[in-house]
Amino acid sequence: MARLAFVSTYPPRRCGIATFTADLGRAIGSHEIVALLRPDEVGGTDQRLHHAIRTDVRADFARIARSLGDCGVEAVSLQHEYGIWGPDDGVGVLDFLAALRVPAVTTLHTVLRRPTPAQHHIMRGILDSSAAVVVMSNAAATILDERYAADPTRVEVIAHGVPDLPLVEPDSVKPGLGLRGKDVLLSFGLVGPSKGYESVIEAMPAVVRAVPDARYVILGATHPELLRSEGERYRTRLQDLAAERGMTEHVVFVDRYVGQAELSRWLEAADVFVTPYPNLEQIVSGTLSYAMAAGKASVSTAYLYASEILADGRGRLLSEATPAAMSGALIELLQDHDLRRAMAQRAYDHGRSMVWSRVAARYARLFARLHAAPREMAVPRERAVLAIPTMSVPSA
User: Fold this and answer.
1) Span 4-161+356-385: which CATH code?
2) Which of 41, 148, 332, 381 has an alpha carbon within 20 to 30 A of 15's alpha carbon?
3) Model confidence over 23-76: pLDDT tens digits?
């Protein structure tokens, strides 16, 4: 396979894309790292970290792109989400791609059905400049076709990778987490308003009337960007809401960032996993993917990714997250052990196709195919005419 560089956020940054990149890199094998750094960040200590792009310094994007070809990199795996590539919706990604002289495979973590003009311009530039783009759902591929007129021959659907977890009986894990005898609902991830945890807290009084030992665990630290802008104001609002509903004992906040080993234990202890996300346009969820890997019965709002991955009886989908709808779905699964177990088994079976070894093999085949292709096919000609809008950042 080609000598490969990953361009992305990367640990110690605490974000889902950084974790995704580290996991994919471990599974795919030999590679080097180009880290995207905020102004207040420094690179990590990983020996594969060869370059860093300061996202507030415009000159870094093209300079690092050119240097990759000079040091023998033959292909790039680029992770894209508008917020990680710097100011102005991350328009610097176009500078990077325009200067790159090797094939780029861009994994799209966000595909907007209703982009702003600037966001549409950036996505079109990525599509024109990438040898291939990877999305993690058929819904995302459909949006690329209908909204952005993407070349279907350059679009690959590859699942979000997940760890290869065993299917475990939750009651065997609960005592070690202080949850012996409890009926456990779980949501995890960086905490912020986009997660919609309020809807589950609002549903908990009805859940507890039907299932008195129910506990809703919200696992994860507050999102670093939210923490930087407003501190713990949002978490405090959630705690206050739980208190107002008389649910302080039944809503458990585990306020820390957890590694994969601890996360796996919490997943294994959960009876039902919940993703109550209010943004119905969301096209991928790493947390829901991990729940599938652990074989969890899930209740979710019907955002695009959930509607696809929980189809065919692999979960319960809610058209709206009202307290009545949410509590009804949660009570049904908590009270019906056979239904919950059957749903969990279907989720686990589906999750086997998403384990990192299989996902990495698909990426490896894609890179091998591009490496073997004639150069005019692997490096799109559109790069030569890509228009780069002005960025409001220093050019130092």
Assistant:
1) 3.40.50.2000
2) 148
3) 999 999 889 999 999 988 877 777 788 899 999 999 999 999 999 988 889 999
